[in-house]
Backbone:
């Protein structure tokens, strides 16, 4: 009589749990790199193309860096092993009251009648000003602070380090799942 014995040499549930943990760590590392890139782009102001109308209102100041609100509003919703999705988004909303300092030192104050909008989105994709704004009916070009970071992600040393860390974590998770 022939007897065959089968034995499982790894725990599939433990493997899936460890792979999810490794993936979650990788997604959070990449999200942090993207957020830092967005912050750097906003602080450098390299994506802004100042037009005459903008210079008239703000002088030599970079309008998107003037208050720091745009850069401070880049947020990360982190990934978890149960929810493998990390989100980087900009939460900057326009405020009800505004204050614009002109180059001659005069301050122009006012109150918006329109509801608050996410101006990081509009700055990134471009928009047309309202008929009752300070600069009426003008097309504001897109000031894309997101795509340069994503396009250069593969060259970023922190991204390369995160990939190596992910591979190491994945190997460890395979070993931990073995009995």
Residues:
């Amino acid at each position: 009589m022939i007897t065959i014995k089968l034995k499982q040499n790894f725990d599939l549930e433990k493997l899936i749990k460890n792979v999810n943990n490794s993936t979650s760590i990788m997604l959070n590392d990449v999200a942090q790199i993207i957020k830092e890139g967005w912050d750097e782009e906003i602080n450098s102001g390299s994506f802004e193309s100042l037009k005459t109308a903008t210079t008239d209102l703000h002088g030599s100041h970079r309008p998107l860096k003037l208050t720091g609100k745009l850069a401070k509003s880049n947020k990360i919703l982190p990934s978890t092993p149960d929810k493998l999705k990390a989100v980087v988004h900009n939460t900057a909303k326009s405020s009800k009251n505004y204050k614009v300092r002109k180059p001659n030192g005069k301050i122009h104050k006012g109150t918006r009648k329109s509801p608050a909008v996410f101006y990081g989105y509009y700055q990134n994709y471009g928009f047309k000003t309202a008929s009752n704004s300070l600069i009426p009916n003008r097309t504001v070009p897109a000031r894309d602070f997101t795509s340069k970071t994503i396009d250069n992600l593969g060259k970023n040393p922190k991204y390369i380090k995160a990939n190596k860390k992910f591979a190491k974590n994945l190997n460890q998770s395979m070993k931990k799942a073995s009995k």
About this structure: Helices lie at 12-44, 52-58, 69-72, 119-125, 147-151, 157-177.
